[in-house]
């Protein structure tokens, strides 16, 4: 994992997939923060499907990995008691209501397909919403959008 920042710097368009037995919240946070497109737990049961998701979506994080990442992020930015007292508010000054719904589902680790199914919209419409969110929040990828949303208390993370 030490090589991640160097790989991302030298090959910014490379999709980095980390496969590890040791899924610890701090390592997950480090990997995502340094450009990993996916972190997969070893042993792999569905490697082909997971790699296809990375190629189609640009990223893929199983829900247990996202939970560890959120735990790591919370630990870095706030104590647990401060997080519980925060009021979650929608960024309606920046995003439409639908974009807020999409952002919340992204924070829950949902894929474009899953977001579309939940909101009864096409996957292409979800991609359009995600693109609009990234543009409006001035971030390059959905992970950074979720990080910003968590930091600003725009999404609820349990």
From TrEMBL:
Molecular function terms from GO: DNA binding
Pfam families in the record: GerE
Keyword DNA repair in annotation: no
Domain of life: Bacteria
Coiled coil regions, renumbered to chain: none
Keywords noted in UniProt: DNA-binding, Transcription, Transcription regulation
Classification via InterPro entries: Sig_transdc_resp-reg_C-effctor, Tscrpt_reg_LuxR_C, WalR-like
Residue ranges of domain HTH luxR-type in the record: 88-153
GO biological process entries: regulation of DNA-templated transcription
Protein's name in the database: HTH luxR-type domain-containing protein
Organism: Lottiidibacillus patelloidae
